[in-house]
Amino acid sequence: MRRRAPLPPSPLPQRLGIDPVRLRLPEGEWPDPGTYLRHRYEGGAGAGAMARLLERGEVYGADGTPVRPGDPYTAGAFVWFHRELPAEPVVPFPLPVLYRDDHLLVADKPHFLATTPRGSHVIQTALALLRHRLGLPELSPAHRLDRLTAGLVMFSVRPADRGAYQGLFQDRRVRKEYEAVAPYDPALALPRTVRSRIEKTRGVMAAEELPGEPNAESRVELLAHRAGLGRYRLTPATGRTHQLRVHMNALGVPILGDPVYPAVLDPAPDDYRRPLQLLARTLEFTDPVTGLAHRFASSRTLQAWEDLPGWEAPPPQQDR
Fold it and tell me: Residue 95 gets which letter from DSSP?
C-alpha cells in the first residue's frame, strides 16, 4: 500500500489556543491562489475576511512567507491562516484544573463553557482556554461534555497518548456518575435502568427516542428530595448525545434549566441565570498509560439544590 506523504508542519503558531486553518490548493485552472481563495469563500461571511487576510499578508505558505494574491498557483500546495473570529461573550466562571501529569489533565468545567471549538463557541471553550493558559498547544479532549453541563472533562497532554485515553470512553472502561436536580414524582419508582434508542440529527437541536434496538442505557437513582425537587444520581452505561437529558425527560422529570427538553427555548448566549442542573460528578478508571487507578470528583454544586432549605431522604426502593 502506498503511504500518504506526511503533512507539512504549520508555519503559524496557535492563536489563543486555536490552530490555524490548513487548506490544500486543489487541481484546477486558477490563475493565482488569491483568485481561488476568494472564490472558495465567495458568498459567505468569510468572503470579505479572506480578501482582508490576503491584503494584510496573513495567509502563509509552507515556507512561512505570505501568499500574495498574484503568486503562481501550485495545485497541491498548502496554505495556512487564522480566521477572523467575532467577539464571543466571556463565560464568567472559573475553569480549575483538578489533576495534571505528563499525560493526563482533568478540569472541572463550568456550565455554559463548551468543551471544544464548535460553531460560535471558539475561544471561549475549555480546550482553547487551557491550551493558552497552560502553554499546552497539543492538548486534546479524551471525550466531550455538553456546553450546558458542568463537571469533569479529561484531556490528553501528548498526541501519542490521545488514542489510549479516548479508547477508555469508546470501550466503556470509565465509570461515570452524574448528579441532576429535577422535579420529584413520588409515583416514579426508582432506582431503575432506562434503555432506549436515541438518534440525533445533525442541525436539529433535540435528540429523539425512536423504535428499534436500544443504543442508550442509563441508571437513575433518587438520592434525596425536598420542596418538590429531587436530587438524582445518573450513571450512563453508554454515551449518546443528550442521553441523560432525554432519559430524564422520558421519565416525566426533565432536568431543571434544560432549554431543549421538553421544549426548545432560545435563551441569549450570555444569559447565565438558569444553568442546566446537570453535573458530571465523578470519573473512575485505570490509567491506560501509567497504570494508576484514578477517581476524580467535581467540587461543583448544583445551584437549584443548594438554594432550597431542608431535605428528606427517600425511602428504600426496589430496583426496576
Answer: -
In this structure, which amino acid lies at residue 60? Y
Cβ-based neighbour number of residue 185 at 10 Å: 15
Query: Is 82:15 a contact under the CB 8 Å cutoff?
Result: yes
Kindly report, residue by residue over 106-142, the tens digit of the pLDDT: 999 999 999 999 888 999 999 999 999 999 999 999 9
What is the end-to-end Cα distance of the chain in Å, rounded? 53
pLDDT in tens, 248-300: 999 999 999 999 999 998 888 788 989 999 999 999 999 999 999 999 999 99
User: Region 157-164: what's the mean pLDDT?
Assistant: 97
Tell me the pLDDT band of 320, cut-offs 50, 70 and 90.
Answer: very low
CA distance 95 to 108: 6
Tell me which amino acid residue 85 is: L
Does an H or E element contain 226, and which? strand 216-226
| C-alpha of 7 from chain center | 26
238-248 pLDDT, tens digit each: 999 999 999 99
Write out the DSSP string of 192-247: EEEEEEEE--TT-SS-EEESSS--EEEEEEEEEEETTEEEEEEEESS--TTHHHHH
Angle between helices 33-40 and 46-56 (to 10 degrees): 160
128-133 LR contacts (CB < 8 Å, sep 24+): 128/16, 128/17, 128/18, 129/17, 129/95, 130/17, 130/95, 130/97, 130/105, 130/155, 131/14, 131/17, 132/14, 132/16, 132/17
H helices present in the chain, as ranges: 33-40, 46-56, 126-134, 159-170, 243-250, 303-306
The residue behind cell 488569491 is 34
User: Contact at 8 Å (CB) between 90 and 110?
Assistant: no
Enumerate domains of the chain plus CATH numbers: 21-81 (no CATH), 97-306 (3.30.2350.10)
pLDDT per residue as tens digits for the range 304-314: 898 865 555 55
Chain length of the chain: 320
